[in-house]
Amino acid sequence: MVTWTFRISALFYNPINSKMWQIMQFESVIGLEIHAQLKTKTKIFCSCSTAFGAPPNTHVCPVCLGMPGVLPVLNKKVVEFALRMALATGCSIAGESRFARKNYFYPDLPKGYQISQYELPLAEHGFVDVAVNGSVRRIGITRIHMEEDAGKLVHDPGRPVSRVDFNRTGVPLIEIVSEPDIRSAEEAGAYLRQLRSIVRYLQICDGNLEEGSFRCDANVSIRPRGSQTLGTRTELKNLNSFKHVEKALQYEIGRQQEVLADGGQIIQQTRLWDADKNQSFSMRGKEEAHDYRYFPDPDLLPLVIDEGWIDRIRQSLPELPAAKKKRFMDVYGLPAYDAGLLTSDRELADYYEACLGFFPHPKPVSNWVMGALLGLLHQQEKNITASPVSPEGLAQLLELVEKGVISGKIAKTVFDEMAATGKPAGKIVEEKGLVQITDSQALEPVVAKIIADQPEEVAAYQNGKTRLLGFFVGQVMKATRGKANPKLVNEILKKNLT
Ligand code: ADP
Ligand code: MG
Ligand code: ZN
Description:
- The protein is built from 17 helices and 16 strands.
- It is of the alpha+beta class.
- The protein has a nine-stranded mixed β-sheet. Strands 5-4-15 form a three-stranded antiparallel β-sheet, with no helix packed on it.
- Adenosine-5'-diphosphate is lined by residues 29-33, 177-180, 219-221, 230-231, 233.
């Protein structure tokens, strides 16, 4: 109590500290709106292809071009994919939901409205658990609904014209809206990664932020710590990487704290993140906010979903990242970090378990997959499914280390050689003569020569500078090109140095 009074009065007289003090009393409140492009073969209301990269306006028809008199027909696969996500995030599914028209004008929207869901969305009241800094927080999901994507404007930098490509018009999306439960930029990043991981596990979206198949708008406000009411929020757009999401949120939280600490007020507005300038800029204020005049789409019937279908989809869901992570910890005894990283991607987890099938030592396999293998894939910009070293190949290599045939150090050289040539570990070890020297008779003369060559170091060692043992080990390893068994080298050195 005494300290508290003292702190306030001490800060009261110091205007700079006073500002700091106010800033520290705020907490940030974040809610994300995520748009995930669904990987169905055809569009949501017509049979045009969704394939990416086709010449402009070749995947179009009267329906997705919004010609008069056409009728949309709902793609069942879209509903199935949306239901997979809804069930994977613990949402309740609406027995009856509706499509609605969101009306606005933009050249990439040929109908003059987007078909979305509004008052009666497909799913509501879900959640995901997100691990940040070792603690787990539950983030609520307000709703998940289906909608169609708009087209794409292509700007010609050389001429004052823009063209429009309608190939993307009508590509299915789900929008996943979170509760304002997120409390930091870091947590927002973790939530986004978790959702990306889930859509990829479900194989409904490829989750690519850079290419825009997984997009995120972030709503953020701050409020005095402990307050239950929400502050005025701003909405951040143009966040096309995890790094941008976190940086933009940090920037915006800082900006709002500054405004409030200076006695100002937050203005509700939409802000665009400029990654080059590391700043956000106001795009439009509340006054310019759209009134979309939503109304039920009279061309589409209410969507009634059969309970049996929901059950079948629920049965067919794969083991999800959170459950897999827990299993990796419980069954394989992996630390949370390893389990989280290995299960962040379904194919990576499959690779890991395939490798364990051949070499059942969870932690060494985890170390090699997270270290050498992911390092190599990152360097070669390859996906785990294109790994140049197979799970069986890696297992064979680890077997050689386990049996003492090669040292752990040499194993890395062999691994790189396996990746480069595709040859099995055993063959590389044989061809290059990399078998570990575990024969003390072979090592004794090497040690003897090194001791004879370094009389000063030997004297220093004998006078108590025992740290020099490492130096001698290094010399032996160098002389044997890394092939000597380090444990044996230690023993022989100790014996000969004293
Ligand atoms: P809109 O559809 O106008 O963008 P919503 O009310 O649907 O608005 O909210 C969109 C997102 O903004 C949701 O993720 C929600 O959690 C979040 N949100 C709403 N109010 C706030 C606030 N005051 N601070 C932070 N996030 C908020
Ligand atoms: Mg919004
Ligand atoms: Zn079409």
